[in-house]
Amino acid sequence: xxxxxxxxxxxxxxxxxxxxxxxxxxxxxxxxxxxxxxxxxxxxxxxxxxxxxxxxxxxxxxxxxxxxxxxxxxxxxxxxxxxxxxxxxxxxxxxxxxxxxxxxxxxxxxxxxxxxxxxxxxxxxxxxxxxxxxxxxxxxxxxxxxxxxxxxxxxxxxxxxxxxxxxxxxxxxxxxxxxxxxxxxxxxxxxxxxxxxxxxxxxxxxxxxxxxxxxxxxxxxxxxxxxxxxxxxxxxxxxxxxxxxxxxxxxxxxxxxxxxxxxxxxxxxxxxxxxxxxxxxxxxxxxxxxxxxxxxxxxxxxxxxxxxxxxxxxxxxxxxxxxxxxxxxxxxxxxxxxxxxxxxxxxxxxxxxxxxxxxxxxxxxxxxxxxxxxxxxxxxxxxxxxxxxxxxxxxxxxxxxxxxxxxxxxxxxxxxxxxxxxxxxxxxxxxxxxxxxxxxxxxxxxxxxxxxxxxxxxxxxxxxxxxxxxxx
Length: 472
Known about the structure:
Blueprint (H helix, E strand, L loop, with lengths): L4 H35 L9 H22 L9 H27 L5 H33 L3 E7 L6 H8 L4 E8 L4 H8 L4 E5 L3 H13 L3 E4 L3 H7 L2 E3 L6 E3 L7 H21 L1 H15 L4 E7 L5 E7 L24 H8 L7 H7 L3 E3 L6 H10 L12 E3 L1 H5 L6 H13 L3 H14 L3 H4 L4 H13 L8
Parallel strand pairs: 1-2, 1-3, 3-4, 9-10
Antiparallel strand pairs: 5-6, 7-8
Helix pairs in contact: 1-2, 1-4, 2-3, 3-4, 8-15, 9-12, 10-11, 13-18
């Protein structure tokens, strides 16, 4: 199998899996809807061809849309549990929305309770089949498509990017060899030809461009981490004004319309959330007060839009004066400063809920770069001056880096992910991140915060790698 046909076979396999998944889930829905319509067909119109096609059509559209958002079609790309979580999330949202769609089609909202019970059972059955199907399809994918053999291209020394990829996803990558990018071009080509893909390991822009051209010429897949300038360039507009290609970066930030819609969404969603979650607020406040009599809320200074400072709100999960020396002391997993109530609300993320008030007040947005502590911004900015780019938009309750990063993501990589959000902002992207947050909220490695030691280690790491400054 040559270099171009192998990826095409993977895409074909994923498409086939997606079609089968869609057919089975839609078939189950059709059966449930048909039986419901037949049982309640007192007016004689529910079983009409138009109603059946509309019900099934709406279901297919919703299922495709949310599966794309949650990555449910990407068999073999993510880990099994991540793929299953994405598919179940897409299925759940689709089934919930279909309750309202079905009521709209029938014109009878009195069916809401009945439909909810029926669709809940339907979701349970679909979920069981979906889990079994996904596990089998991923296992088959891994047999059909063994890990890609990688050759790592480095500059002065290997930084370990290829090793991290190979160890993190043994089912997808196998690091077989490494070679310096300063090697003679003919030798480079001869070595690259032996492997399935190339990973560029922390090399300069000039060296990376050289390798990219070689890989393009040889039809070789190549992996590389983007530089900050790459992310900015990717959002450029292509202009055809002269007889030469021309890119335009407007660098204007959000338009007035985008800012208005984003703020409107913040107000509406946070207002609804505050009303729905008010019992949780009340119970949590009483529990915190009853345990030690201390204040219910914990306030901490953070940075948001244009570097402005504000006091972020959280439910207090630690003892009073946990940072009485004025220095930040991020909590560890077994920190004895965490109260009994605190252990529960931290594990369930309830301690973050008061930030809904910050959103209503306009200090934060639902989606945006996570607002950092003032001290952390100052520390990171010493080594990475571009870190302040994150403050081009309001800080958020959730964000691109929180959804796609991990607790130990470096400051530079966190910046790059937030820059991807800033440069590609749209209301649809906000909605996608909100739904992704629902999926990953229970994944500890995606939401856990930095420890003080990790912060210091990352800063030392940045200092030791001065050539990383070329990576911006």
